[in-house]
Task: structure prediction
Amino acid sequence: MQQTEHHEDPQQVELLRVCRIGKAQGLKGEVNVMAFTDEPERRFAPGAVLYSKDGSHEFTVLGSRSFKNRWIVLFEGVNNRDKSEALRGVELYGPADDPEEMAEEDAWYPKDLIGLRVELAEDNGLGLPVGQLVGTVVDVIDGPAQSLLKLRRKTKATETQATASPATEAAESKETSETPTPVETTALVPFVDQLVPDIDLSEGYLTLDPPGGLIPWL
Result:
């Protein structure tokens, strides 16, 4: 199998996992791959180059096709079943897109969004103070229409409990510590411009303009 040495320092180029090679397809070197990218047409286009995990070897795509829910790819230098079987289990990576170009196109990697604090946008429809902390992005979920941001907020247990009678409160106070136990609450927000008008990765936050009822704790 032909493997081209990759001379750029892999530490200087951020690589993202694109696929894992599965079983051989036929006798001419094609392989089935499990794709981890949302751009398989681009990543598996003829001439596209993928890399080993450490970035030291290149794998050039000669051709590809989709079949049902998987992709079948032919790499340069892999021209028989023995060579394709030898690649089974290998994970391939591709260079991340330039962050500035992605920002201009309003495109973001999930890993860039996870961990951002969420603040209310200026002139938000709820009429609440700009910059009020809503929570933190803890996940990005692929939805049928658009991606969803999963927000998490930690609250005190006493803030989420219904008002109890004085007698009940007195009894419960003996069973609980003086420090309320944190309770995590979550909400899902469609990742669209109308609801998420601004993202500032350098400052570590995004702004939110939610309609009433979308965020339970607002």
Remarks:
- Residues 1-11, 158-169 have pLDDT under 50 and may be disordered.
- The chain has two domains: 4-96, 105-208.
- The chain is about 15% helix and 35% strand.
